[in-house]
Amino acid sequence: MNLSIEDDRLAQLLMRGDGNISYDEARRRLDQAALVLTADDVTGVPWIQAALLTAAECGLRMFPGGVYLGSDFGDTTVVGQFGRWPLRRHLELAGCRSTGAPAHAVALHVGTERRRMQGGALCWADGWAGLVGIETPADPPPAGNEIGGVMAAAMGIGEVFRSVVLGDKLACRRTSRLSALSPGCEDAAGIDLAYLPAAYWMLGLGNLGQAALWTIGLLPYADPGMVSLFLQDADKSEVGNLAIQLLTRPDWIGRKKARNVATWAEARGFGTTVIESRFVDGTNRSADEPGLALVGVDNLAARRAAAGSNFDLVVDAGLGATPSEIFDIRLHGFPGRRSPEQAWPQQDGHLDVPLVPALQELVDAGCIDRCGALMIAGRSLGVPSTAVVAAAIQVAQACRAVGDGTFVDLADVALRNCRRAAGRRHRLARPGVLPFVRARRETTAR
Asked: Is the whole model's pTM more than 0.90, yes or no?
């Protein structure tokens, strides 16, 4: 699908990140961006499959030059709510290519076999944590789980994207680790992915909401029909969503996001309730509706309303919206140590956003008018890999809450430097109140 300048979110990211890059140069760089996916010989492990499927979906959006399969991927798919076909078939159906990759393609390898990468990155899971680097550790890490696999893939895609598309000189040069269960907090390696939430209220079904639903779809539910999803979003899917929202397909354009997402979830066996109105102040759930809310909206009023409502647990994720912040994440949990007003102080009035030279050139050339350029300059930017990391942290907190009654109520993560992640743990006001089901296995080790 050919995108207009107004809908080309990735090109806008490059132009606004470096005002000297023209639209044509940004498009050329993106069209050249290609990725090769490889993996260890054994790909029948749930976390490896979760990582590969996630890497494919993120990569297809962030590498317009194509995602190519560099391994066999012949093992039967065992992860989540996917058909039990060879993994390769799922990857090809997603859009990955089986033909030879161009010589300039960057490689992302999933697995823990001993190796060192040149011109790419490795990613692997260690329990709930994702890791990315250029060399695997001498001692293989403990087994990962599906959320760790999602984290590893999203971190890996972000790393190679920063290296080859954004020209980040620090990318693909060091090992980064981030735990979805305890971002910046004390280690929680002893907790298994054994208990899964049985009901979610998902507020916002854009990049964050779709990434969260994707992650939920990879969890080891024995019977997804036992899971209730309340899907709330008032907006329609747009062409510009294709490059940043993980589930959006061309035939979704012009239709309500909540209905599109419900169709995706129902095809995987989940029970759904569609809500197409906005969440406003004073909205309260009834006793038979989900007490767990995963919030992923950029509307401050809706975020405050959800955090101040009568949910038993609200896990809100926010993403950086400018070129310098698109790999930054902040997570809030409520009820926690801070009120919604403390978490989100009232903002000042609208600030004028200057046009970078590349946008001014488009105006001068008559490609877009000034109103269109100002709209682009003020638009929130993002990449799906960051949304997936944030969503994996959200879902991990939900699993932790039903498992041991605790959750992270504040976390700050900069994916460019995961060592600076900070977070703190809090306890549910009423432990045991959230409904759950047991995973179809009791430990993470496989």
From this structure: yes
